[in-house]
Amino acid sequence: MTPKLPPRHLPPRRLLAVAAALALFGGPVEAQSVLEQPGPTAPSNPDQVMPPTTPPPSNARPSDVPTCPLGSYRCPPRPLNYSMCRPNAMLSFYDPTMSKDSSVRDTSNTYVTAQRVDGSNQTVYHLEGDVKLDRADQRIQADVADYNEDSTDFDARGNVRYQEAGQLMSTDHMRGNQDASTAIADNVAYQMLASRGNGVAVQGQKLDEQRSRYLNATYSTCDVGNHVWELRGKDIRMDKETGEGVAHDATMYLYNVPFFWLPSFTFPIDDRRKTGFLTPTIGSSSRSGFTVSAPYYLNLAPNYDATLDPRIYADRGVMLATEFRYLVPGSLGQLNFEFLPHDNGDSDPDGTANTEGKDRWLLKYNDHTQIYGPWSLNVGINRASDRNYLRDFGNDLYTASIGQLTSSTYINGGGKWWNQVYWNASIGADYYQNVDYSLPDSSVQYKRWPRATFNVDYPINRWLDVGANTEAVAFRKNESVEGNRLDLYPYVQANFQGAAWFVKPKVAYRYTGYDLTGNYQQYGYYGLLAPGQASPFTNGSPSRSLPIVSVDSGLIFDRSMSLFGTSYTQTLEPRLYYLYVPYRNQNNIPLFDTNLMSFDTWQLFTPNTYSGADRQINANNLSAMLTSRLLDDNGVERLSVDFGQIRYFTQQRVQLPNGANTVTPPTNWSGSDYVIDLTTQLNDSWKLTSQYQWNPNTSLTDLGAIGVQYRLKTDGVLNFSYRYRRQPGTELPWLEQYDASVVYPLSDRWRLIGHWAYSVLDKKTVEALAGVEYDSCCVALRLVGRHYVNTYDYSTQLGSANTAVMFEIEFKGMGNFTGQSENILRNGILGYQ
Question: What distance in Å separates the CA atoms of residue 624 and residue 603, rounded to the nearest whole number?
Fold first, then answer.
């Protein structure tokens, strides 16, 4: 039963199936008379080529395909490209001047030419010599044609050629009946003009207006006469009314070698989604062994569908993964569930969960539902059976390591009151699950159970507005102090600006109050107290209130200049930011969701260096930064340099606790790190970015980073980066890594892929990836191997590694066999496309 729903549709699925390639009689013989409508045609001179006037966009040369801009973190996939295909001989009789409008066939006249016409029979017309029949977008040419005016039988013989808006076709002999919309053609060859599909059939049959049958037929998107791959079916039937085709005894061939066979399967012949097999996946992982996946897609209705994905893990057993998607009025969602009964693999010797013989599962559910007016419900649930699940099944070639799974449910709303007051609000809850065996459960975030926010902003006029940010949260966590928190942040701010200057004063007041619950006196910042250790939480209702005053100001100067013979506009942008926040002792406030953020340029102009509301810095600071840019005549930023520092007029007294629930002493620094950021892209092939932070109080480098990207030819890229960060309060490095990656085009068909990340502190490779890609007219191949650290034990500074190998083959025009490795390549290699 199909529900009454609006005409909304889910995204399509790519199927391992014929894409309507053998629609030989989609319009060729839908005639009222041979003298009124043409039949099929055939190629004449195969060496003469006349391509279509409007080729599909995928036929562009590689240089015409837009390249990903330098510095992009994630590039879109390369479009399907047939540029390496040679001219198609089937197009030798193509006439680009013919009409492309097939909707006017029934009302169009048919024009007939022939060297000889014999109508002596008065019933059967006999045409000979260069017979040509044109109607609308259709044309049929033959050596000889007969037509019975009484029975509407027709017979075309000898070098029969047919053209219409969507295809070309040739056959030796074609006969049929125009009134019954039936026809039979022998020795058929065809070319689909829009999709490049082409092939042959021993016989083609038109059963009626909507249904066709093809015997001993082939299909491929490769060059005519040079099929690297093709599909061969003994019996292929297609129904235009349902958009469905059925192939019996179908075999896929690669270089004339069979490698995939099905006794019967259905496939789409138009853009409608269709039930059938999706592209399978073949790979190997050191965690689960050899892996085979064969997903099956179920097109249940226009607004919901499902996918069944049985998987075989050689070392662990058989898993069934499912996906269900739905789109109903006001609601959109997706449910994924994976289940593996009785895991045959051994438990990890360094793991904390005994998984041997256990049922393993993973649940992911996302939903967005419009409730009423501006209010909507957003649900995201992610749960796993154990802490090793993602390590065994998720952390393969194309999935990044995840330390915890987040589940949340919120009701959100927002809009305008009286067309003047902007507001947004939410209420919901967040839950976190530990899925990293090397981390204790105490390291997982507090559950926010529940959490509510309300933000409002009222522009009084064009330069002055007032507003408030509010949050109420209940924090829950086992063996830790728990409680509720209310954070109120009203403000008044102004914005005075001109063409070359701005001044933005802001006055705010922040109140944060707590209600600690349970036996909070027995806990410290890090859980249960040791014997004799004093708890900092002696008051069950601590609070903090203080004003926050800031003034942000800047100037913008510019001038014209020339560098290396090129004209630029240079800017000079000084900026000052003053911040005042009085000191409040916050040692009796627990840390629910607050951490010290890493220092960078952005923090020169922020009112708080802590990520949550549990700590608010005291400040009497002045931040200064000088920025200079070079802009070319098109407004593209070719060079940008930032230099800045914060000057402290009072001590930084608000600090996070260290071990044994003691608080770090106040700092007496007179200034923050000097920050220098440099970005340059003097041409379209090179880009360099760098960051440097020097601590004048310790005369040590706190941060150093540099990244270089170089464009290789049209679609290649070379990346190199180095990053160093020092541990706060020590002279020891906290992180030091090298990272290099490359996509190197050997030719227009071959590309080498590599990625290497090395940790100097651990003296080990964090990730090594190597692969090769091949791209031809109708086949693309990718072989990728990856060795990477998927978990890390911070106590022992040792990590476990995983090795995965993936082979992919794509038959252009029919989908690909995996596509899974593309995600890790696009995420791991800057500029990969």
Answer: 12
Neighbours of 444 (CB within 10 A): 19
Backbone angles phi, psi at 757, to 5 degrees: -125, 130
Query: pLDDT tens across 176-234, in order?
Result: 886 777 889 899 988 877 667 788 999 988 787 678 888 999 888 888 888 888 888 89
Tell me the sheet residues that pair with 264.
Answer: 248
How far is Cα 217 from Cα 202, in angstroms, rounded to an integer?
7
- The topology (CATH level 3) of 87-273 is lipopolysaccharide transport protein A fold (2.60.450)
DSSP secondary structure, 208-232, as one string: SSSEEEEEEEEEBSSBTTB-SEEEE
Strand partners, 453: 426, 471
Buried b vs exposed e over 424-440: b needs ≥16 C-beta within 10 Å? Answer: ebbebbbbbebbbbbbe
Amino acid, res. 64: D
CA proximity to 190, closest of 27, 55, 14, 16: 27
**CA triplet 472, 475, 479: central angle to 5 degrees?**
165
Would strands 482-494 and 138-148 be described as parallel, antiparallel, or unpaired?
unpaired
> In the chain, what is the straight-line distance between the N-terminal and C-terminal CA atoms, in Å?
44
Tokens encoding 734: 């906290």
Q: What is the C-alpha separation between 466 and 589, in angstroms, rounded? A: 29
Report the length, in residues, of the chain: 833
Least confident stretch, 9-18, 419-428, 452-461: 9-18
Residues with Cβ within 8 Å of 309's Cβ and at least 6 positions away in sequence, in order, are 293, 294, 295, 296, 320, 321, 322, 323
Asked whether residue 742 carries a pLDDT value surpassing 70, the answer given is yes
Distance CA 278, CA 554 (A): 57
Nearest to 742 by CA among 714, 720, 764: 720
Cα–chain center distance at 652: 43
Q: Which of 475, 615, 622, 502 is nearest to 550 (CA)?
A: 622
Contact 390, 383 (CB under 8 A): no
Q: How far is CA 284 from the centre of its chain?
A: 23
Angle CA(156)–CA(158)–CA(164) in degrees, nearest 5?
60
Residue 97 structure tokens: 């001047």
Question: Please, are residues 409 and 430 in contact by the beta-carbon 8 Å criterion?
Answer: no
Query: In this structure, how many other beta carbons lie within 10 angstroms of the beta carbon of residue 104?
Result: 11
CA–CA gap between residue 610 and residue 656 (Å, rounded): 10
Q: Are 437 and 387 in contact (CB under 8 A)?
A: yes
Find the Cα–Cα–Cα–Cα dihedral 50, 52, 58, 61, rounded to 10°. Answer: 40
CA distance 25 to 203: 12
Domain limits, the chain: 87-273, 477-667
For the cut 90, the answer to whether the pLDDT of residue 111 exceeds it is: no
> Which runs of E-coded beta strand occur in 179-288?
182-192, 198-206, 211-219, 229-239, 244-254, 257-268, 276-277, 281-285
